[in-house]
Description:
The complex is a heterodimer.
Chain A: E1 3-10, H1 18-34, E2 39-41, H2 56-59, H3 66-73, E3 79-87, E4 93-101, E5 104-110, H4 122-125, E6 142-147, H5 155-162, E7 165-172, H6 188-204, E8 207-212, E9 214-217, E10 220-223, E11 227-229, E12 235-238, E13 245-252, H7 254-262, H8 271-285
Parallel strand pairs in A: 1-2, 2-3, 6-7, 7-8
Antiparallel strand pairs in A: 1-13, 3-4, 4-5, 8-11, 9-10, 11-12
Chain B: H1 27-45, E1 49-53, H2 58-71, E2 76-80, H3 88-101, E3 104-107, H4 111-118, H5 136-159, E4 160-162, H6 168-173, H7 194-204, H8 208-212, H9 225-229, H10 233-245, H11 250-255, H12 260-272
Parallel strand pairs in B: 1-2, 1-4, 2-3
Helix pairs in contact in B: 1-2, 1-7, 2-7, 4-5
Amino acid sequence: MQPLRIALAQVAPRLGDLEANVARHHELLDQARVGGADLVVFPELGLTGYQLQDLAAEVAMRLDDPRLSRLAAATAGLSAVVSFVEESGDHRLFIAAALLEDGELRHVHRKLYLPTYGLFDERRFFSPGDVLRAAPSRLGVGVGLAVCEDFWHVSTPQVLALDGAQILINVSSSPGRDLATTSEVGLGTATSWRTLMRTYAQLTTSFVVFCNRVGVDESISFWGGSEVIGPAGAAIFSAPLFDEGLFFADVDLAEVRRERIALPLLRDERPELVSREWRRLIAERAGLARDSTAEEGAEDGLDVAAEPGEGRPIGFRAGPGSPSPGSAPPVSSRAAGPATRRKAGAA
Amino acid sequence: MTRQASPTAGVDGSPMFELPSELAIDTDVARRVIAEFIRGQLRQAGFERAVLGLSGGIDSALVAYLVAEAIGPERLRCVLMPAGSSSPASRADAETVVEALGCASEIVEIGGLVDAFFGAGEMPGASGPEGLAASPLRRGNFAARMRMAVLYDRSVTWGGLVVGTGNKTEALIGYTTLFGDSACAFNPIGDLYKTQVRQVAAAIGVPEVVIRKAPSADLWPGQTDEAEAGFSYPELDRLLFWRIDKRRSVEEVVGLGFDPAFVARVDRMVATSEFKRQVPPIAKLGPRTAGVDYLYPRRRPGSARG
């Protein structure tokens, strides 16, 4: 047994009221300590609220901000993850999550993926982070921090797990939407998130800890539903939707070893293969290499040929020894006229 | 597992309304979200009370129930504002809602305000002799704006925020009066289609007579929304859902079985009413312009009154 008690601080931050939120964090850290927690997780932008817009610059903190230092100082014998607007030395603003342990700020993760679509407008106000690393922890295993949308990109949990994280911590301000009755818990957003977290926990054979806020900023309501998922992909704890509270979950970290021995997915990952293919993709997207799935005749870096026509072979590049797709006859080169082109596999 | 939609059956077992399956929502979650929303809006604005105009129709009745559920009926004031054209049944239904909830209420006759402008009988009003020939539509729009003026006055005397009662269907097709019924401090049901309003109303216990009756702007005796528009709410809601929420093209919704002429007509209603759903544009001149590049949350530290 390697018991670990996790406290999920499913709070409703006050929008833009840094002092009130800092005070609330101190209260909950105390409560979590009294409750015997080893790890306390607060949601994305728990120190500032989410829908900040131009307030972001007004509530931003540098990593040397005394309010952060005092929060760190309150973590003797504890690990805590808190989230805030971080201002860098060159005055960029990031949505940051910090690992505070034993009185120190040990690790900072800057949100990598800033949704700017639908109801989101993050890229307008924030800069995306450029670093994705697992961090060592007093808990005895590596931990990986991620913020909300970071988990809508499959590489995030994968890289963190390969980098040594056995606990993946996602802090979120996820707005609830889609009340269709076809959804498992009456909220489409919650159903999507639950699918993701179970899948990631299983694929990375790691614990996934999800802390989502509650409360209302402007039009949007946050749904809570914080969870702890075990390394076999099953939920160990699910907090209620929409209720504010400090929720405790007990896990056995030894589950990670058992699952990874039984299901050595991480051992079998092929980072060198993935890296090679990604380098190729990057070169193709940059127009530095022929795009293997572009229309014939497309300019490098583009995937559609400008010349109007009936349709062109896709994924076909004529050249010495290259096979043609399907049963389409060979189409020799980009010099060939439209008359010789046809849809892939149509012949 | 799929959760069951709220029952549509009335006391006698017959359905109170038609519910297309794609519009079925989880009414428990809807009520929970809306209650938090109402409490949050009031708290952040520094108010403890709310006021709304109660017509006797389902939209304002539902909002009254939702507000009462969120903050308690003792903090809600319903203002009944019949005009000369309003049917007595509407007023009776509004009074039923007030009695059921036990909230504060009052009746403010709007007819005199409308007559003072347009005139009555052969006596011209402030609008001059031409006003005597004003169409029911002009009079209806004017009445809606008088109701708005009354509500904002009561917002001060009651010390409550004005709660909006417009639904998503009417907002999308523009069946609202600008700065009239659409004016409010916040709107809890503005993202619910009419058929979804009916579901939540059934779940929360709005009187069946209110749920069952044909929706009407009550501008003249016997007027109904559906007769005036020429299509039914379930049909309209389904089309709006597929076109707007699910981003289907005209060709795709026609493929789903919608009549092309109906689709074209509704598309046009949505496009021509875009102005009613947005804050009026300000000519950009200075370095920072509200709504353009001065973007603050409506509610933030220091924004609450008092």
